[in-house]
Design brief:
heterotrimer, A mainly alpha, B alpha/beta, C alpha+beta, A: mainly alpha, 4 strands, globular, B: alpha/beta, about 20% strand
């Protein structure tokens, strides 16, 4: 019944009427508020005090969560297993990084008024054309969305038009990010080669090294995650979302009832790439560096694991998975770094074999059981 | 199709010039017309010089032994397979060989597959909603709202296919026969001019078969229906005209009685189980 | 220095040549001792004279002495005897008497004093040995020494050299000597030398010609330029052949790496991301074999072929039984699970063996290269791997076409349900296929161990390339894999010189991504009903 009543609203605000979205947003904002209070109001040294490092870490997790939501949108609902979403994330990150580089101005080691340090080091005498405009925040922020969107548009157009799907698509997305990684490693590309972009100072005039900016970035990332979640939820609960699910389960059939499947795939793929780019842009100022390793196929496939662990096609599962896996990674690499890859590998195997619906699947099953119990007792009494 | 072509057919450029009911032009004869169609896979001719004509509102049954090219023929009509030679026309205006699958579908050709494929993760209601004739471009689909009119239309079809009680259940839990009906229901939502139905009663019980026969004969007249079927009893119960395919071309055509007395047919196809044919 | 060398050679040719071919037997040992004593002085010019004296002495042991002196193996014991160290790799060295050639057993390095030489003497020794070797009855020695003379001939050597050329029986030595003479002639401005060098690809010949091309004599310069142009042309062809060879070699590696994948992917629709690690295990098996059989790298390598196959096949079976069978019909999940396995295997090798690379020894019969001409030599290990890849490919073809297993595999590939209803045990076929595909990965690892370093990341470096080969060639088609692998290898090598290795790789990846748009099912797609997945 709820679908009926809420479906008459404006499509973008439709998810706000949903129970799951309300719970998700409630939990998210409560967490944001809690961390903020514990950081600002609790005195240092108190056991509940959350230090700036942890705030920063949480901010990083949240940007990963947004990335995972973007991957879940294409994998969970459209059935496209992209092993190259790290590329969109990294490109968004590079766009932000370029803006931050230009903000350094003449305070770099070499003190050049325009050129970033690495270009001075390489004896370049002028800025490459694709660096123009990145000194303006609005342009750089637009590029955060447009650059990954454009790549997704071109790549997706070619792939979906010729009906490359399934494992083939996975393989070529992996090849895409691999090729980009190799390219970005080259100094000649003009993105800092091996070392990437780093030594950032300020964002929109706020000092990136101050604790307040870190808290601000954490909250901004949380809000971006909330908005991204609502957007994705609005898409998947619309008729378009149902077309996506239909495409995922029976592509040929969907085509036969008159949908241009490739266009729907392209649309959702581009939206997802833009969200991934946004996640990358929020990630970079919080970790203070962007380098080609974000393009590595291993990272992209790890994102997929977050989604698989959390539970596909739920969106909130992706968020849970991203946070759980990355928290585990933080713990493991601190305590026994050698064991992390074993744990990661084992997670891949166990999740796919034993827990195909992820953590969210467990939650749903418990809910169903309760529901069924209630239903059966209801029937008995009737 | 291409812009130039759309310019040539002026009624598409100027909306007001478009004919009211359907873009299909059947004033000059049949609704579907296949001429000299040939398809080969790796040298094997699945369809060999096939000629077939279906009239508007007709119910046609197509029979033939395995490998006669029935499914391939359906693939050609719906744009899934491209023939090596020949022409395929929908009405006298639309050359189907120049169109892709969604375009053909939106012209009003609906197809039910041999193996029922419904969207198992979606509810019965949603299955019908997606199939409905509507603006199927991206943004209209994204912003589409559920109106009373649409609900009524879906309820009507639910009634026709007898799945009203199961409307909110995921289609995955339906029985085989129910899935077949849901598929026919999805076809009906498209308001097609031509229905291609591939083995509708495979795996159905006697009762389900009767209901299906009722459903299909009820559709004929308003729509043209092409049924591919193996079950001779079922064909006999609904068929007015029967076409026999053999090795990719038409072997015989006529009423069930004419066809089953044709010596060629008896030899290649019905000869195997005389009793049923007689 | 050069003058000194010429002096040495001139002396030696005048005094020694006429009698060299008829070596006299058993010269007097005291005279020989005197010759060697002269070497053990501190002044290097004096040593040079001593070397000349040895050459002029007609002593048949002269070559051994000079060679030992050059290698630093001519030494003197505490009690003044001259000895030749036979093997100076260990702690105690086996030695023999320099005069009598009788073995003196092992001696400690501390009891021996090396007779030192400097670079000038080294050059003198090399040329001297080359000249001595020209008269050696051993053809190989004559060839090496003739090659060494290129660019070293001077006025005084030229005349006896022409005589030698006339007397020489071996064609190759003759050609070499003629070239050496011609280089001298070009350098001294004679036109006939230019003609003789026209076909030569040796860098020395080119140096001489380009010098002549810039020389004063316009006729010689013109001729030299013309000769250089024709040499350049020739070189281009040779470089082309070399690129092709390297391309085919890289391609053969890709084919080996990809063909196992093509089998498992084609037959079971399963993407095995751990395929690269199976390759790595094959390579480590080779390393392990060589550890077990020290001193016999060749035997170890040959035994590694079955061993590598078995190890990888068993691990493959474990993967199939342990994970993949539970993921039937879910190819994307299979991809993720096998990726997890690949991480575990990599980390396992890092933990158990070492994160560092291991070196696998190349047996003697595989090292070195096949010299076609001065500009083109083909390394043997690559040739063996190329041949090995073709043999593996042919055997797989045979298995697929001629055996019961192949028949069943093809049946299951085309229609699993139908094959099963005909009594083919699809599960068994799956296991066998997976074992076969994995085993071939192991073979690829054995071959790769001869070309690259063996480390935990070995497989990772090849996995994306292998996928590209399979996708490019078309799934389920072994010929497609062969053609795709070889052509990708060649394309890569052709691009590399002007684009650089990284860019070449990027171009190839982009090319394949674009290619798939045009032909989503690869070069050799399956057609008809079987292709509808």
């Amino acid at each position: 019944m709820m679908t009926q009543s809420s479906s008459s609203q404006f499509w973008l605000t439709r998810p706000l009427g949903e129970r799951t979205t309300q719970i998700f947003l409630g939990v998210l904002f409560a967490a944001l508020l809690l961390v903020t209070v514990l950081h600002l109001a609790v005195p240092q040294g108190h056991p509940l005090y959350v230090n700036a490092y942890t705030v920063n870490l949480f901010g990083k997790y949240l940007s990963y969560a947004l990335l995972a939501v973007a991957v879940d949108l294409v994998w969970g609902y459209l059935g496209i297993l992209s092993l190259g979403h790290g590329a969109f994330f990294a490109i968004g990150g590079y766009a932000m990084g370029m803006y931050l580089m230009r903000q350094i101005g003449d305070r770099g080691t070499y003190g050049h008024p325009v050129l970033p340090d690495f270009m001075v080091f390489l004896n370049w005498d002028s800025l490459p054309w694709y660096w123009y405009g990145f000194d303006m925040a609005w342009f750089a922020f637009a590029m955060v969305l447009l650059a990954p969107g454009l790549l997704a548009l071109v790549f997706g157009f070619l792939a979906f038009r010729s009906r490359v799907t399934g494992v083939y698509l996975s393989i070529i997305t992996q090849a895409l990010t691999f090729a980009l990684m190799l390219a970005f490693f080259r100094n000649e590309m003009g993105f800092g080669g091996n070392n990437g972009l780093t030594d950032f100072r300020e964002l929109l005039g706020y000092n990136l090294r101050s604790n307040d900016t870190r808290l601000g970035l954490f909250i901004a990332t949380g809000v971006a995650l909330a908005l991204g979640y609502i957007l994705c939820r609005a898409i998947v609960t619309s008729k378009l979302g149902r077309v996506c699910v239909a495409t995922r389960d029976a592509e040929a059939r969907t085509r036969f009832i008159g949908y241009r499947v490739e266009r729907f795939q392209l649309f959702v793929f581009v939206v997802s790439a833009m969200l991934a780019g946004l996640a990358g842009a929020l990630y970079v100022p919080q970790v203070g560096i962007i380098n080609p390793s974000e393009f590595s196929p291993l990272f992209s496939i790890e994102i997929v694991l977050w989604v698989a662990l959390g539970g596909r096609a739920t969106l909130y599962g992706a968020v849970i998975g991203a946070i759980l896996v990355n928290y585990a990674k933080t713990v493991f690499t601190g305590v026994m770094p050698d064991a992390w890859l074993f744990a990661l590998g084992a997670m891949f195997v166990l999740v796919t074999v034993l827990l195909p619906k992820g953590v969210a699947g467990l939650l749903i099953r418990r809910k169903r059981q309760k529901h069924d119990e209630r239903a059966s007792t209801g029937e008995a009494s009737a | 199709m291409s812009f130039l072509q759309s310019l040539k057919t002026r009624d598409r450029v100027f909306g007001f010039m478009a004919p009211e009911a359907s873009p299909v032009d059947v004033r000059h004869g049949p609704i579907l017309y296949l001429e000299d169609v040939t398809v080969s896979f790796d040298g094997f001719k699945a369809i060999n010089n096939l000629n077939l004509t279906i009239d508007d509102g007709e119910l046609r049954c197509i029979i033939g032994p395995n490998g006669a090219g029935k499914t391939t023929m359906m693939d050609i009509i719906t744009g899934k397979t491209r023939p090596n030679e020949g022409s395929v026309w929908f009405g006298s205006r639309h050359n189907l060989l120049q169109m892709n699958e969604p375009e053909i579908a939106s012209l009003g050709i609906g197809r039910k597959f041999q193996k029922p494929t419904v969207f198992e993760a979606l509810s019965v209601f949603e299955n019908l909603e997606l199939a409905m004739a509507a603006d199927k471009r991206i943004f209209p689909t994204l912003t589409a709202r559920m109106t009373g009119e649409i609900k009524d239309r879906i309820d009507e079809v639910l009634e026709t296919i007898g799945l009203t009680a199961l409307r909110y259940q995921p289609a995955g839990i339906l029985s085989h026969g129910q899935k077949q009906w849901l598929e026919i229901g999805m076809l009906l939502m498209q308001r097609p001019r031509l229905l291609l139905v591939d083995e509708p009663v495979a795996g159905m019980t006697e009762q389900e078969m009767e209901r299906t026969a009722e459903l299909l004969t009820g559709l004929a007249g308003k729509q043209s229906v092409v049924v591919v079927e193996h079950d001779m009893g079922f064909v006999r119960s609904i068929a007015r005209t029967v076409t026999v395919l053999h090795q990719g071309s038409v072997l015989a055509e006529g009423s069930m009685d004419q066809v089953s007395s044709d010596p060629n047919v008896v030899e290649v196809y019905l000869g195997a189980d005389d009793e049923e044919a007689a | 220095m050069r003058r000194f060398l010429i002096l040495g050679l001139a002396c030696l040719l005048m005094g020694w040549l006429p009698t060299a071919q008829a070596q006299q037997a058993s010269p007097d040992d005291s005279a020989a001792l005197e010759l060697l004593e002269a070497l053990d002085v501190s002044s290097y010019p004096a040593k040079g004279e001593a070397i000349t004296a040895i050459l002029q002495s007609d002593d048949e042991r002269a070559r051994d002495w000079l060679q030992a002196l050059l290698d630093g193996r001519l030494q003197r014991t505490e009690d003044g005897r001259f000895v030749i160290v036979l093997d100076n790799s260990g702690r105690n060295w086996p030695v023999e008497d320099a005069l009598t050639n009788e073995s003196l057993g092992e001696m400690s390095r501390r009891d021996l004093n090396r007779i030192g030489i400097n670079n000038a003497l080294r050059n003198q020794l090399r040329s001297a040995i080359a000249v001595v070797d020209l008269y050696s009855p051993n053809v190989d020695r004559r060839r090496t020494s003739a090659t060494r003379l290129l660019g070293e001939v001077d006025e005084e050597l030229a005349a006896p050299l022409s005589e030698l050329i006339a007397e020489e029986e071996d064609g190759q030595v003759q050609r070499r000597l003629a070239q050496a003479l011609a280089i001298y002639q070009v350098e001294s401005g004679q036109l006939e030398g230019v003609e003789a060098l026209r076909g030569s690809l040796h860098p020395r010949a080119r140096v001489a010609l380009s010098r002549a091309a810039n020389g004063d004599d316009p006729i010689v310069a013109d001729a030299a330029r013309e000769a250089l142009a024709s040499i350049e042309q020739n070189l281009k062809i040779n470089r082309g052949i070399e690129t092709l060879y390297f391309g085919l070699s890289l391609g053969s590696v890709l084919v080996l790496a990809a063909i196992g994948l093509a089998i498992t992917f084609g037959v079971m629709g399963v993407i095995n991301m751990a395929h690269g690690e199976l390759i790595m295990l094959g390579a480590y098996t080779t390393w392990m074999m060589q550890q077990l059989l020290p001193g016999q790298p060749g035997l170890a390598l040959i035994l590694s072929i079955p061993a590598g196959f078995m190890v990888a096949a068993l691990v493959g079976i474990a993967i199939e039984r342990g994970v993949i069978q539970f993921l039937k019909g879910r190819p994307l999940e299979t991809l993720l699970a096998t990726f997890g396995i690949s991480l575990i295997l990599q980390q396992l090798v890092r933990t158990v063996i070492s994160p560092l690379n291991r070196t696998v020894v190349t047996p003697e019969w595989m090292s070195g290269s096949l010299v076609i001409n001065d500009a083109l030599s083909l390394t043997l290990n690559r040739m063996v791997v190329l041949g090995f890849a073709l043999v593996v490919f042919a055997s797989l073809m045979l298995i697929m076409r001629r055996t019961r297993l192949g028949l069943e595999v093809r049946a299951v590939t085309q229609n699993r349900a139908m094959a099963r209803s005909m009594g083919i045990r699809a599960t068994r076929v799956d296991i066998m296929t997976f074992a076969l595909g994995s085993g071939v990965a192991g073979l690829a690892g054995v071959a790769l161990s001869q070309l690259t370093n063996v480390g935990p990341n070995l497989g990772q470096n090849y996995i994306i390339d292998s996928f590209m080969v399979v996708v490019f060639g078309g799934v389920g088609n072994l010929w497609g894999t062969l053609v795709a692998g070889l052509s990708l290898g060649v394309i890569n090598q052709i691009l590399e010189p002007w684009a650089g290795a990284v860019l070449a790789k990027i171009i190839v990846l982009v090319f394949i991504i674009l290619f798939i748009q045009k032909r989503p099912r690869g070069l050799f797609p399956q057609k008809g009903r079987a292709a509808e997945g």
